Amino acid sequence: MHSTELVAQIQGSLKEVVKYADELRDLDQALGDGDLGITISLGAGAVIDALAELPATASPSEIARACAKAFANANPSTMAALVAGGLLAGSKVWKDVADVDVAEAARFVRAAGDNIAQRGKTQLGDKTIVDAIMPAADALEASQSGSDGLDAAIAAAEKAVVETRSLRSRRGRAAWLQERSIGLQDPGATAMWRFLESWRAAGALARS
After folding, report:
1. Is the sign of the CA dihedral 86, 92, 95, 97 positive or negative?
2. 136 neighbors 190 (Cβ within 8 angstroms)
3. Which residues form the domain of 194?
4. How far is CA 28 from CA 39, 40, 68, 110, 124, in A?
5. Nearest 10 degrees: CA dihedral of 77, 78, 83, 89?
6. What total of structural domains would you count in the chain?
7. Which pLDDT band, with edges at 50, 70 and 90, does 119 fall under?
8. Total-model pTM
9. Could you report the per-residue pLDDT of 39-82, keeping only the tens digit for each?
10. 179 within domain boundaries
């Protein structure tokens, strides 16, 4: 996937993911401050606009950096800062990349997940977005093709969302609920899952 294709795919995916804004808001109201739907909506709109201004010669790394800057500037939430930091980390592994394939996508997702985990002081099992990101990276790394890898990544993220419901939230506002967080679905992990689904949906629309 070259730069023009990458820009179109990102924009299409973000147009899809905002359809989940109400779901993410409701999940975040149960475990946090309820602003995740707004964070996703404002961030998606800002990124779509920012990418429209990029020259056709922009590299994948430059595209990722533009996404990070636009998402961070769209709103001041903690999630926006974490996602932006993850995107910047991913942009660094694409420094010399001209064509993004499944292997490069895996490297990007892994770098983003590592950065979010470090900045958020979280790890697998803390019931955060990291629980969906890292299994998705594993699935992409194990795949031999883009479509198979994406399907596997979606399945891995969904599994993480379901399985972490039974865990206690250990980071962020959700941790304040302590035992009351058990049984509730993590909004951050759900956002990652829904974004991957949106990536697949946007690809299907582009091919139709």
Report:
1. negative
2. no
3. 3-203
4. 11, 12, 22, 25, 19
5. 130
6. 1
7. very high
8. 0.93
9. 999 999 999 999 999 999 999 999 999 999 999 999 989 999 99
10. yes
